[in-house]
Amino acid sequence: MKRIALIIAYDGSAYAGFQIQKNAVTIEQVLNESLSAFLKEEIHIIGASRTDAGVHALGNVAVFDTDTRIPPEKIAFALNTCLPEDIRIQRSYEVPLTFHPRHQNSRKTYEYRILNTKIPNPLLRKDTFFYYRPLDTLKMQAAAQYLLGEHDFQAFCSAHAQVNDTVRTLYEIQVERDGDLVCIRICGNGFLYNMVRIIAGSLLRVGTGDKQPEWIREVLLSKDRAQAGDCAPAAGLTLLEITYEPLPDALFVQNEEIVYYLWQKEIREKQKAYLTVISCNEGLKENISRLTLKTFRYGAKWFYVRYEGEDLAALCGVSRHNTYREKPFFTAGDYRYVLYGDVIQMDRDLRANPPLETAQRVLLVPCGPEEDETFLQLYTQCFFSAACAVTLTKEDLTRYREQQKTPYLLFAEDKAVGLLLLETQEEAIEIGAIGIAGRCRRKGYGKETMELVAAAALSAGKKRVTLQVFENNKKAVQLYLHTGFYRISSRERWYVCADVKKRAEDAKVSDKMNENKC
Cα angle at 35 between 32 and 36, to 5 degrees? Predict the structure, then answer.
């Protein structure tokens, strides 16, 4: 069994859209029937974008599973001989069996073409919308900029759409004129039902002078479909391409409702994602639930979330079923978020707790760029399973050095046994990270390192050594207490949501594999 991806171009004029329907011919139906006949097996494709009736495409994407021995790249040529002239496969290639065209980080680009002249051109009637009133494309471009970024596009979604999440991100909008043709090109991470056509219809009202560019922002904030322009005809719309990209390490989003920071770097290696909500005017639970679903869809199994300076359970309402026996938790949508723990600030006052003499078994060696690989390997060993310890890269270490943070390797027994990250502050030395490799733990190296840091801080004229640690990391907290640290305050409170369904499915797969091994 293998999974084949298709890049599909089609003239949608004769079809009732992409998605299969009971009483109408669609692109999906034609592809299913043609592939089944050609490969002599029942085929059901999964499309990336379910375009509306009459909408065209140059680069839609679909996948299907097959047992065929035909080379993947040859399928496009063979299949085209079975398809009608208004559908053509541009390319075929193999993808992993786990690839789902709608569950990947992607960018979709649509173009809406308007023939803006007094007399229609019959040769362009199938792929343009004829509009005779003069259009000011500069005003349309100015209005379009209000739509950039992540927003709730409910006002630009058909009232008949059955969707709970109306938040989308638009990366680029360009309105350009080439002679009598006005093209509106929109790139985003996804689109709602009729969204591009309603945006085009709204920009037309600005282009004619009926509305000023600022009106688009008012419509966006209203979340009311009745406030937007008409839905422009389908003929002018073409899906140009869908590109798949690696997840960005982090996202910073600021819009009318919420400001947040989403860390996705750990999804691939650790199946973990982290959300810090900086502020939220409305829809806190809805946004948390939406982002949880998004990260789970991209492969995360654990989603950690906090609100900067606030307790999320207090903001979202602790369940009335919570008792003193349970950890604090709250619910958002279909998800339950349980307290993971507080990050606490701990300080050691060197005047009250000066450094103690040590056996001097540990040597602190500043880590230069040539030792970065060793540092990163040790960091992964020490912190791979830690909840909020993100994986570091060489670029991170370079940035740390620029910020006056110094990485160290800890040597003992003629080898590197751990690592240390220190930041020099005005009155203190901040321990950003300290870790001892598993094979070298319980030998007192961590305690000795703490004393060496304290001695270095005192000799540099500093008054304190500071650090942050999860309160539920009992062993680390005990070590710090035994070396003269005391708790100052709680800095952050993290909650965690586990994708129970995904973990259960993974467990079933693991059990089945073990049965096969037996």
Answer: 80
Residues with Cβ within 8 Å of residue 179, at least 6 apart in sequence? none
| Measured distance CA(393)–CA(399) in Å, rounded | 10
Residue 510: is its pLDDT beyond 80? Answer: no
Q: Would you give the DSSP letter of residue 152? A: E
Backbone angles phi and psi of 375, in degrees to 5 = -60, -45
Is 249 tagged catalytic? no
Residue 150 tokens, joined: 């992540």
Query: What does 329-378 look like in DSSP terms, one character per residue?
Result: EEEETTEEEEEEEEEEEEEEETTTSPPPP-----EEEE--GGGHHHHHHH
For residue 299, which amino acid is it? G
Query: 40 is written with which tokens?
Result: 């002599």
Q: Tell me the pLDDT tens digit for each residue of 314-345.
A: 898 765 555 555 678 899 989 999 999 999 99
Look-up of token digits 């840091």: 453
Its pTM stands at 0.84
Mean pLDDT of 66-83: 95
Collapse the DSSP code of 177 into the 3-class scheme (helix H, G, I; strand E, B; otherwise coil) and give the result. strand
Domains of the chain: 2-95 (3.30.70.580), 106-243 (3.30.70.660), 250-328 (no CATH), 354-483 (3.40.630.30)
Work out whether strand 302-307 and strand 363-366 pair parallel, antiparallel, or are unpaired.
unpaired
Residues 87, 12: Cα–Cα separation, whole Å = 9
Contact 206, 215 (CB under 8 A): yes
Mean pLDDT score of the chain: 91
Q: Could you tell me which residues are beta bridge partners of residue 468?
A: 345
Tokens describing residue 82: 């079975």
Q: Is residue 364 within 8 Å of residue 449, measured between CB atoms? A: yes
Whether residue 508 is predicted with pLDDT greater than 80 in this model: the reply is no
> In 236-339, where does DSSP find H-type helix?
267-270, 284-297, 312-316
Name the H helices within 389-470. 394-402, 445-459
* 362, 448 Cβ separation under 8 angstroms: yes
Set 11, 52, 347, 372: catalytic member: 52
Q: Helix, strand, or coil here: 65? A: strand
- CA-based nearest residue to 385, from 511, 301, 272: 272
Instruction: Tell me the pairing of strands 2-10 and 464-470.
Output: unpaired
